[in-house]
Amino acid sequence: MVKITDVARHAGVSPSTVSYALSGKRPISEETRQRVEASIRELGYRPHAGARALASSRSNVLALVVPLRTGIHVPVVMQFAVSVVTTARRHDHDVLLLTQEEGEDGLRRVADTALVDAFVVMDVQLDDPRLPLLRSLDRPSVMIGFPADADGLTCIDLDFAAAGEACVEHLARLGHRVVALVGSPPEVYVRQTAFAQRVVQGFTAAADRGRLASSVHPCEATPAAAREVAEQLLREHPALTGIVVHNEAVLEPLVDAFEQLGLRVPADLSITAICPDELAANLRVPVTSVALPSAEVGERAVELLIRKLDAKTVPEATLLPPRMTERASTAPRNTP
After folding, report:
1. Which of 24, 93, 104, 128 is the most exposed place for a label (fewest CB within 10 A)?
2. C-alpha dist (Å) from residue 193 to 113, 189, 211, 226, 266
3. Which residue ranges in the chain fall short of pLDDT 50?
4. How far does the chain reach from its first CA to its final CA, in angstroms?
């Protein structure tokens, strides 16, 4: 069966241009229209019922694509989801939540119907296999996250590389010279999940620039794993005095583990984190942190998508700068 992407390839235009030629929703040049119509006739393309419905009216439904893969912290993901849903409702849109780990197949299944007008895509990988399809779809999308090649896509996220840098620079200003990153679960790095990789890049770049000794330690999201990592760090890096945590689930267990091992926070060990503000602020030892702006990111992702649906121009890249709040977990390095 001939698809709209086949027509676009044959005519040398984008799938959205073919859609506009069919629906008349957006002006295109007469030359382009004639080229699209010639390709339609030559290939014998016939829009299916769902596509015709999409051309004539909107469903007023957005799809939120958030595969619940192993290693992700579901409470934080749900903060993004709630923000997307509440913002969509302000624009009279409902949200279809797609949580299965189907990748391109799941996207295509929904895209081949008239169920949704547009897509918000989460859990972005550096070399995300969904990118070719997202670039070819005849309806808009916004990614929460940045793949390695974001050309032709609309992406928004916290600047995670800058967040990693900010944590290291804060520790360096306090005199800490040996630092470690306690990161996401190993499978998150194996999948090349973009936000986790960006944190590592920023952490490493800032440590190298400041000539700090540094190491990166993925950590399963359990108290037992936090204890193991704490023991490993003290065994392998006895001069360690600064920690960056990018793993919400182990932040509190990690603080407890270090103190059980005889290190006082922050007298002996300063700890920073990239996590939701409410988590960092409400721990027994409130943690200096870069806020994870899930509500803002979700809201702005929907706003970008609504503008795209209205055929308005939007920036391809929106990076939110890190915002650090200093709390009781960091202090100047305790020198002998």
Report:
1. 24
2. 29, 6, 27, 21, 31
3. 49-50, 52-56
4. 75
Strand order in the sheet with 270-275: 213-218, 178-183, 242-245, 270-275, 288-291, 324-325
Using alpha carbons, select from 140, 138, 106 the residue that is nearest to residue 123. Answer: 106
The first and second tokens of residue 174, run together, are 């306090």
Euclidean distance between CA atoms 199 and 183, whole angstroms: 9
pLDDT tens sequence across 258-270:
999 999 999 999 9
Taking a C-beta distance cutoff of 8 angstroms, is the pair 48, 15 a contact? no
Return the number of other C-beta atoms located less than 10 Å from residue 101's C-beta: 10
How confident is the model over 210-253, as pLDDT tens digits? Answer: 999 999 999 999 999 999 999 999 999 999 999 999 999 999 99
Do residues 232 and 239 touch, judged by C-beta distance below 8 A?
no
Cα–Cα distance for residue pair 263/281, rounded to 1 Å: 21
| Cβ atoms of residues 141 and 301 within 8 Å | no
Parallel, antiparallel or unpaired: strands 288-291 and 324-325: antiparallel
